[in-house]
Design a protein that fits this description.
It is a single chain. The chain is an alpha+beta fold. The protein folds into four domains: 64 residues, Beta Barrel (OB fold (Dihydrolipoamide Acetyltransferase, E2P)); 81 residues, OB fold (Dihydrolipoamide Acetyltransferase, E2P); 71 residues, Beta Barrel (OB fold (Dihydrolipoamide Acetyltransferase, E2P)); 73 residues, Nucleic acid-binding proteins (OB fold (Dihydrolipoamide Acetyltransferase, E2P)). The protein is built from six helices and 21 strands. Strands 1-2-3-5-4 form a five-stranded mixed β-barrel. Strands 12-13-14-16-15 form a five-stranded mixed beta barrel. The protein is rod-shaped and about 110 Å long.
Amino acid sequence: MAEAKKLTMDELLEQAGDSVKQLAVGDTVQGKVLSVKKHEILIDLGANGVGMVPRREASFSRDLEVGQEVSASVIDTEMEDGMVLLSMRKAVKDKGWDEIAAKLEAGEIVEVTPFDANRGGLLVEYEGIRGFLPVSQLSAEHYPRVGSADKDEILQRLNSLVGQTIKVRILDASKKDNKLIFSEKEAVKDALSERFSEMKVGDTVKGLVTGVVDFGVFVNVDGIEGLIHISEISWERVNNPADYVKPGETVEAKIIAIDKERLSLSMKQLKDDPWLSEVEGLKKGSKVEGTVTRITPFGAFVQISPSVEALVHVSELGEGNDVDPEKVFTLNERKEFKVLDIDRDGRKISLTIA
């Protein structure tokens, strides 16, 4: 019996015809898992032989089982042992970038789960590709509104979002630059626009306090950010908003202005203005007693009731405006004055010395 002629690989490929495609670096191939070892995974590529995936190149596919169908990218068509060097990580990434490009173009809302945080935002992974959700692109519900110097609390609030599912839109994506940026603001924009259209100035709303800063209080009203300026917290003089509300509290407020991104709110306008009731019996010429609370170059401020502060202008202290109020008044002294004018709309009272 004549010995069978041994065929070269090229001859075998030629005989196979179209059933076997010669592999090239960068190709994506399909195969079945032959074995899963500590440092490598072997893949049956059929007529193309056996492929080997180093474990570090399979980090996105840790729970592989023998017989499972997988995709991989060709890194080297033939190593010294004759196997094909593959990367499942690269195949997943390539497929992921295609998916991301489609989602970006369609403007679709997708879900991500942050796995870490820094002061700039949240680190996420989508379709096997790592991306970033900047703190500036978080919605009012998640934005860490705290004092700008309180960086530890900002990071603490961002860390509380790690592991949570967040709906986002892809804001920017570049495979070349390996850049993937997400925005939660963009994902909620349409819903917020509808809610904005249902609101009007004068409405009373409830919201969750998300941050207390020197100039006021930030409130989440059904996903819309609202600001209660320090001047709208209480009818009395407010020096520190933190004395009135704390993050996590629910407050009731009145809408006093609406813009495209934020509500302007007032807590004090839901309460009667004590100033009006305290000046109700006053009129021009009335004599009142008051305590000097502030002395300035243009006059002195006098507290005549718990909510009412009036001004004695420097022109009432003598001829011209050259009189030094500090030589006329002593801080915290109590004196008798006469009402010169009452502006109830402007909430101002002018006094002169009785």
